Amino acid sequence: MSSSSKAFQWLSLVGIIWLQSINGTNTTFPAYSSQLKNTLSMSQLQINNLVFASDAGKLFGWFSGIAAIYLPLWLVLMIGSLLGLIGYGVQFLFITNQLASPAYWQVFLLTMVAGNSVCWINTVCYVVCIRNFQFHQQVAVGLTTSYQGLSAKIYTDIVSAFFSSSPHKRARAYLLLNSLLPLIVCTVVAPFVRDIDVVTGKQPRNMATGFRLMFVITIATGIYAVITSLGSMIGLDRMIGTGVFLLIPLVIPIAEKIRDILSRRWSLADRENKVYNVSIDDQNGLESIESGVVKEEEEEEHTTTVQVHNEVSEVQVQHGFGVREEIGVKLMVRRIDFWLYFLVYFFSATIGLVFLNTLGQITESRGSSKTSSLVSLSSSFGFFGRLMPSLLDYFFVRSKYMISRPAFLVALAAPIAGVFFLLLNPANVSLIISTSVIGVCTGAITSIAVSITTELFGTKKFSINHNVVVANISIGSFLFGYSSAILYRKEGNDDGSCLGMACYRDTFIIWGSLCTFGTVLALTLYARTRKFYSKRA
Asked: Cβ(462)–Cβ(454) under 8 Å?
């Protein structure tokens, strides 16, 4: 592959990072849900059902997968951004009274459309990473997906920088940004988020150096996000800093392009120098030189072929993964390990996601006005959680201290259970710690679930199998959200509002107990799959 192609290859990865950074529009819901509830006169139960509607929209994400097969990727990208424009844009018109007050079913349907828009952009991101980085698929997908964890922080920083501190006006601002920002970024990125002419079966040189640099940039971005979420910087400064960190990855494709230009100039100068030093009359000498050059090129080509072959073998060993069995959905749902895995996800990450989606009401009930700061904090820690599995896979896959992914599930599910009981403490610091822990653990489980599905049930039917696994999120959003809303209403006033620790006390006890049960199931899954993972090691 030429350096020019490598430059476009890295440029496509930078484009995916930008897309993922603004694609978590549904994660901003807690920041404006209370204002939406008051403006449209909704009950807490109706607000929780909107959370379910957003996740339910993802059940139809398979439409984007079919579209990616038959349509250009830029068109799939634009369809996703237009769905977001409709879903959030019409809600913005409702909340600003430019359209008549909507019926609840209309808001519910628009929320489903907005939730589905995320799937279309995600599909393009996954396809481009897999096609353009054949030897680093999991790393590329994991690294770029982690940036989706920053979405809530990015939107919160923009709202804090440019919009009024009035809660009602901030709710409008979130809906406006959710509708317009993905459309703008998709339009900018569409030209270079495409398939790159990558030579099949050949591992590009110096790719590892680029990924190491990308990891350094990504970790620095996450550290900055956490510090600014906890600090007292004004919104404009935070927004500018985050923008700079999102632009820094451009260094890699720019460096590749510069290297390509310099390489061509040096090559041209070298050839001119050789031509100048060769005598035209000395045919025998010329033939000798030509023969030597041909022989040298043949030896170099042979050496390169061997080297590339060795690199490919090393990458396949280093970044490859074993598959226990290749099965479809019908066989998968008959496996005990599938139901253990499904329920572990259900009783850990899904409950964590419901907590984060209900963060606005939880914060309000505890008498705090720092909803936006907590949303930004959960976003920052979720970013690190999503990045963690890729980081460990890339740098420590050969280490004897590297634990299996089911064991990793145990280590992530247990803290989620613990912090729900910590939330029974009325201190603000307990809310901050719990939000941070749930953010990082939920993000990590979401990320490693992709690898676990592949390893346990195969790659051939992965897209269908994993959609069945993550269907638990929609089910959990409805069940856990609905039950928490009923308990909230039970403790609330006649007007449907609730203030005090009692509002979510029973909910936290139930969620903590269920997550403890999920941890026990994770231990069971680890025990059942230990033999398989020990063979892979």
From this structure: yes
The rounded distance, in Å, linking the Cα atoms of 483 and 86 is 30
pLDDT of 238 above 80? yes
H helices present in 60-206, as ranges? 62-70, 73-95, 104-132, 137-146, 151-162, 167-189
Measured CA to CA, the distance from residue 365 to residue 349 in angstroms comes to: 23
Residue 23's alpha-carbon distances to 49, 55, 152, 232, 350, in angstroms, are 21, 14, 9, 26, 19
Q: Cα separation of 108 and 131, whole Å?
A: 36
Question: Distance between CA 487 and CA 494 in Å, rounded?
Answer: 14
Q: Taking the mean position of all CA atoms in its chain, how far away is CA 502?
A: 34
pLDDT tens digits, 47-89: 878 888 888 887 787 788 788 888 899 999 999 999 999 999 9
- SS3 breakdown of the chain: % helix, strand, coil, rounded to 5? 80, 0, 20
**Side-chain-side CA neighbours of residue 499 (13 Å):** 4
- Per-residue pLDDT, averaged over 209-218, amounts to 90
Burial class (CB in 10 A: 0-12, 13-18, 19+), 352: buried
Q: Which of 23-32, 42-51, 346-355 has the highest mean pLDDT?
A: 346-355
Q: Which residue has the tokens 């990125």?
A: 189
pLDDT digits (tens, 9 = 90+) for 441-468: 998 998 888 788 888 888 777 767 777 8
What integer pLDDT is reported at residue 111 of this predicted model? 92
Tokens, residue 533: 């993972």
Residue 200 has pLDDT above 80, yes or no: no
Tell me what the pLDDT averaged over the chain comes to.
81
pLDDT number for residue 289 = 42
The model's pTM is 0.76
Alpha carbons 107 and 95: distance in angstroms, whole number: 11
Six token digits for residue 176: 């406006």
DSSP string, 476-498: HHHHHHHHHHHHHHHHS-TTS--
Supply the DSSP symbol for 324: S
| Backbone Cα Rg of the chain | 26
Question: pLDDT at position 69, please?
Answer: 80
φ, ψ of residue 96 to 5 degrees: the values are -95, 10
**Closest to 137 in 3D by CA, of 286, 316, 264, 329:** 316
Decide: residue 248, CB within 10 A, 0-12 exposed, 13-18 middle, 19+ buried.
Answer: middle
Count Cβ atoms within 10 A of the Cβ of residue 389 and give its class: 0-12 exposed, 13-18 middle, 19 or more buried: buried
